[in-house]
Amino acid sequence: MEYIQNLSKTINYIENNLKQKLTIEEISQYCGYSKFHFQRLFHQVVGESVGQYIMNRRLAEAAKALVSDSRRILDIALEFGFDSHEVFTRAFKRRFQLNPYQFRKSGLTTEFVYKKPIDIQYLKNKNLNLIVDMEELSLESLLLKGYQAANGSREAILLSWSKLRNNIQSNENGDFAAYGVIQYPDSFGLDIHFTYLAAAESIHIHNKTDSTLKEVILPESKYIIFSHKGSTEDLPLSYEYIYGVWLPKSKFKLRGSYDFERYCAFWDRKDRDIQICIPVMNP
């Protein structure tokens, strides 16, 4: 579990430099991965982007400072890297539903309010063996249509699948594959926001004129295809293994800013054959 050690080391680095300006280039270099690889790995393991983690940790420490000492709110904001009182107040209220003055006045000290640093034991406990098989294949380009999740939350992703299911032709002609396509931006900083599309080939879509349908073309490429066992809730753990263990030790490099899940039997809920497809190229 070398990647667990690397992430733990990197989180300690972030904690030691929480009051300093941090960049994704600096952090990923310290961890020993490319910034694109590191962001994917961090998000899959921790559940949020590097930028979100840093922001929430800074706000947590600033919240403690508001309650524990009497310095000006602006001084605390500047100490934790916020450029102005206004920027700090907006971020703080989004996080705690109170502005800094109200929070200080409330005297809240309950531990659940604060985001603690992630420790290595948490990372180790998440490590499960959910990959049962893998193969290298070249796939032709594929045109898909489907519904984009409003954000990356599990609830929004499930809603996109529900919309797709409601716009699928009946299963009289047999089962077919459906796809969960994750697309990443070509450029990013500490924050990275991916899009998720629940999709199928156009032939299976009932109402093709639905204005909310999105279209994506998966390009012809070489893929490493991992067979995932278990529920969709455990998918992040398989991604964690792929990006944290397998990819760094393989001969391949990531190709493109996307990957996708292929659900081999759309109608059969009992058949949980899920394939994670990672586009790669030789070094």
Gist of the model:
It holds the Pfam family GyrI-like. The protein is of the alpha+beta class and 283 residues long.
Overall helicity: 40-55%
The CATH homologous superfamily of the largest domain is termed Regulatory factor, effector binding domain
Topology pattern, helix = H, strand = E: HHHHHHHHEEHEEEEHEEE
Quaternary arrangement of the chains shown? single chain
Overall radius of gyration: 22 Å
Q: With helices defined by DSSP (H or I, 4 residues minimum), what is the helix count?
A: 10
Shape summary: globular
Q: Which parts are unreliable, with pLDDT below 50 for 5 consecutive residues or more? A: none
- Gap between N and C termini: 24 Å
CATH class descriptor name of the largest domain: Alpha Beta
Major β-sheet, in short?
A: 9 strands, antiparallel
Query: Per CATH, what is the topology of the largest domain?
Result: Multidrug-efflux Transporter 1 Regulator Bmrr, Chain A
- Tell me which CATH architecture of the largest domain applies here: Alpha-Beta Barrel
Total number of strands: 9
How many independent structural domains? 2
> How much of the sequence is in beta strands?
15-25%
- Class based on secondary structure composition and strand pairing: alpha+beta
Arithmetic mean of pLDDT: 84
